């Protein structure tokens, strides 16, 4: 019988037979899995071992080149444990020792693949399989966070702890380098409390013990990130996440204003306090050194009256107790600055850094007052005021009297306001009948006046 003859075919005697043969497959029982590396990334932190969970792309073909399956056609990686019998034997072996980003061809003889039965309609019996594989991701269920410290500033007096509020920038990528998110793109830091479950477990843990300005790479396995489900179309299931973070600042809601005196003049008797009129120079920066504001941008130093809420609370405190010529560095947490909402040019919840120098200090008077006695004041008042003793006090005499009190250090006028107009106001308040002079009857004895009512008066 002619095994290769077509049924009913007629082969004449002495015929020469010509066969056109296409070899589809060839293997030998002694064959092993063959691995050919196509490309390897330059850096490779670890390679796959049995019990790892891996995610990879592949094109599967028969030895003839006929395709039978591809992960690319499904638009998602093939995800599986390695070396635990979840894969055909040849792949459990052929995928060992791979780096993320590595491409290899794995050739699997049928007895390490689907053998005599083949697989579905595309893999015939006894077929050798050829897989071109790209490893996208690997982790081990036993993995913890991996932290690489990239950059620590020279001075680091304090490190993040549970309950702190941190602002940081980050680039988020997968292990193959594909970016999935970046705070830089949004042009604003990511802000969160630390250790209170507001961020994925791995990040919450990784944010401890950081310095301001520090840069770290944090590699988080999926069981400490978004798990088997991932997040929508952004994070695939079982993905390892790589974050490159840069700490901009952090603070604790309990933080006070931090004042460091960098220069103190030898003579330092008179210091600033509430109601004083001061002039000061300043630079205001973020903790990463970004300059926000500076008095240098103006022709003259800044002027303010302390205690009037004209500057942020932290600056008020930073400017208090200074003597002229003193210089300070002041760190102001956001709850003493512009808070959670920020301000023009000041990011939300930003810690501010001020360099301050007190340039001028004029002692002040309480709010609402134009003049205060620094002691008890003359009693009775009128005879003291009536310098020439003619029982009447016109504006000029009143003015001379007030200026004498100031000169002798017995009284103080409100600083920063035109002296003549203050004195004129004070005179007009006392000159009840508006005849241009004060007489004794018009002068209300100071002792009978409640303190609050004597605003603008003696
Ligand atoms: Ca007089
Ligand atoms: Ca009068």
UniProtKB/TrEMBL annotation:
It is found in: Endoplasmic reticulum. Its EC number is 5.2.1.8. InterPro entries: EF-hand-dom_pair, FKBP-like_isomerase, PPIase_dom_sf, PPIase_FKBP_dom. Residues 449-458 have a biased composition (Polar residues). Residues 51-139, 163-251, 275-362 form the PPIase FKBP-type domain. Keywords: Calcium, Endoplasmic reticulum, Glycoprotein, Isomerase, Metal-binding, Repeat, Rotamase, Signal. One of its GO terms (cellular component) is endoplasmic reticulum. Its main location: endoplasmic reticulum. GO terms for molecular function: metal ion binding; peptidyl-prolyl cis-trans isomerase activity. It catalyses: [protein]-peptidylproline (omega=180) = [protein]-peptidylproline (omega=0). It is an enzyme of class 5 (isomerase). It comes from the Eukaryota. Pfam families: FKBP_C. The keyword Electron transport does not apply. The keyword Chloroplast does not apply. Transmembrane segments: none annotated. Residues 433-458 are annotated as: Disordered. Residues 433-447 have a biased composition (Basic and acidic residues). PPIases accelerate the folding of proteins during protein synthesis. This is peptidylprolyl isomerase.
């Amino acid at each position: 019988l002619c095994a290769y003859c077509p049924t009913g075919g007629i082969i004449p005697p002495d015929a020469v037979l010509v066969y056109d043969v296409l070899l589809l497959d060839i293997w030998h029982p002694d064959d092993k899995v063959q691995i050919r590396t196509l490309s390897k990334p330059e850096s490779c932190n670890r390679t796959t071992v049995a019990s790892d969970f891996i995610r990879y792309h592949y094109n599967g073909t028969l030895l003839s080149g006929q395709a039978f399956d591809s992960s690319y056609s499904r638009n998602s990686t093939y995800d599986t444990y390695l070396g635990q019998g979840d894969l055909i034997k040849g792949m459990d072996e052929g995928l060992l020792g791979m780096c993320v980003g590595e491409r290899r061809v794995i050739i699997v003889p049928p007895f390490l693949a689907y053998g005599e039965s083949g697989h579905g309609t595309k893999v015939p019996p006894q077929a050798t399989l050829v897989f071109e594989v790209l490893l996208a991701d690997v982790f081990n269920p036993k993995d913890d966070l991996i932290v690489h410290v990239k950059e620590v500033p020279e001075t680091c007096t304090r490190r993040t702890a549970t309950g702190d509020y941190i602002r940081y920038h980050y680039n988020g990528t997968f292990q193959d380098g594909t970016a999935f998110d970046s705070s830089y793109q949004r042009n604003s830091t990511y802000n969160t409390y630390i250790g209170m479950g507001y961020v994925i477990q791995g990040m919450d843990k990784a944010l401890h013990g950081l310095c301001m300005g520090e840069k770290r790479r944090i590699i988080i396995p999926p069981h400490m990130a978004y798990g088997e489900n991932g997040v929508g179309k952004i994070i695939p299931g079982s993905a390892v996440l790589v974050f490159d973070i840069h700490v901009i600042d952090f603070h604790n809601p309990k933080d006070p204003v931090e004042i460091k005196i960098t220069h103190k003049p030898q003579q330092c008797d008179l210091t600033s306090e509430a109601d004083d009129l001061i002039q000061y120079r300043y630079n205001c920066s973020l903790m990463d050194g970004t300059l926000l504001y500076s008095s240098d941008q103006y022709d003259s130093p800044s002027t303010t009256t302390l205690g009037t809420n004209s500057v942020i609370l932290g600056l008020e405190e930073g400017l208090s107790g200074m003597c002229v010529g003193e210089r300070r560095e002041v760190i102001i947490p956001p709850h003493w600055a512009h808070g959670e909402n920020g301000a023009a040019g000041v990011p939300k919840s930003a810690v501010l850094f001020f360099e301050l120098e007190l340039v001028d200090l004029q002692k002040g008077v309480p709010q609402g007052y134009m003049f205060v006695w620094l002691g008890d004041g003359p009693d009775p008042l009128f005879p003291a005021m009536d310098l020439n003793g003619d029982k009447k006090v016109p504006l000029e005499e009143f003015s001379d009297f007030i200026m004498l009190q100031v000169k002798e250090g017995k009284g103080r006028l409100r600083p920063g306001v035109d002296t003549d107009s203050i004195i004129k106001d004070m005179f007009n308040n006392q000159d009840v009948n508006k005849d241009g002079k004060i007489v004794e009857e018009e002068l209300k004895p100071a002792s009978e006046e409640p303190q609050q009512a004597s605003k603008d008066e003696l």
